[in-house]
UniProtKB/TrEMBL annotation:
Keyword Repeat found: yes
GO molecular function: transferase activity
A Pfam family matched in the record: TPR_16
Superkingdom of the source species: Bacteria
Organism, scientific name: Aquamicrobium defluvii
Signal peptide: 1-27
Keyword set, alphabetical order: Repeat, Signal, TPR repeat, Transferase
PROSITE patterns linked: PROKAR_LIPOPROTEIN, TPR, TPR_REGION
Spans of repeat TPR: 64-97, 98-131, 132-165, 166-199, 200-233, 234-267
Cross-referenced Gene3D superfamilies: Tetratricopeptide repeat domain
Protein name: GlcNAc transferase
Length: 278
């Protein structure tokens, strides 16, 4: 291949990668995972764990805290109806139990009932206007509904309350990223990492912003760390593959795209990348 053809190929490769990055960033900003109870943990709802919590409730049937704790265990295990029943009981025993309202809101959110989720978050914040977890939860509902300004305000409020919950910074970082404010996004993702160093998502998010700023080595390091922390993160595998593809390492790119498709068969950026490289 002549020098002119090589330059044209290089320009084409960069343009293709930029276009793909734009699509990946859009997907991340629209549906990037938050760091909460979204990952079902069956051990939380194991028979042994639930049995011990039930014994506590039986010993103190008028204590709303027991129902709140067991409801949280049911929720982490994906047993949403049982969780709702426990939170309902906790709230009936203590109508000002703002943590139970916020926990029930999270279950409603997972079930796709955002109207009830918002109502419960609003009630929790009426009872305790300084409850950072409720601002973060409500902000997630707003962000996923495309109500970006309201979401940003809720994450900002949680941060102003000196929250130590990494989700506030991670989710505000996603909004900054969607607005193309990658320097601010990187700062927020870095703070989220300092608060939750074992979480995969902030590394993946920061990597995308590094890539948007053409800091490829930093991006690659972050995608690799995201995979190390969570080998089931299909988005991180896709983004690692994108770096390999940009570097012309098609075999490695195809391998990573293939793993992403295996983990998340409907994830379009991974499917498109695999069709380009295999």
């Amino acid at each position: 291949m002549g020098a002119l053809s090589e330059r044209r190929a290089a320009r084409y490769g960069f343009s293709m990668a930029a276009a793909l990055l734009s699509g990946v960033l859009l997907a991340a900003c629209q549906s990037g995972p938050a760091i909460d109870l979204g990952n079902v943990d069956a051990t939380q709802a194991s028979s042994e764990n639930i049995s011990s919590l039930t014994q506590v409730i039986n010993a103190n049937p008028r204590d709303p805290e027991g129902y709140n704790v067991r409801g949280s265990a049911y929720g982490r295990g994906g047993r949403y109806q049982q969780a709702l029943k426990d939170f309902d009981t906790a709230i009936s025993l203590n109508p000002n139990f703002y943590q139970a309202y916020a926990n029930r809101a999270l279950i409603y959110r997972f079930m796709g009932d955002n109207g009830k989720a918002l109502a419960d978050y609003n009630r929790a914040l009426q009872i305790n206007p300084s409850y950072d977890a409720a601002y973060i939860g409500r902000g997630n509902v707003y962000r996923q509904a495309g109500r970006t300004q309201e979401a940003f305000g809720d994450f900002e409020k949680a941060i102003q309350l000196d929250t130590t919950d990494a989700r506030a910074y991670h989710n505000r970082g996603l909004i900054y990223q969607g607005q193309g404010q990658h320097t601010y996004a990187i700062e927020d993702f870095s703070t989220a990492i300092s608060l939750a160093p074992d979480a995969s998502e902030p590394y993946n998010g920061r990597g995308l912003s590094y890539l948007a700023m053409n800091q490829e080595d930093n991006a690659f390091a972050d995608f690799n760390m995201a995979i190390k922390l969570d080998s089931k993160n299909a988005e991180a595998w896709t983004n690692q593959a994108l770096i390999y593809e940009r570097r012309g390492e098609k075999a490695k790119a195809a391998k990573s795209y293939r793993e992403a498709v295996r983990l998340k068969p409907a994830y379009q950026p991974a499917k498109d990348g695999l069709s380009r490289t295999q």
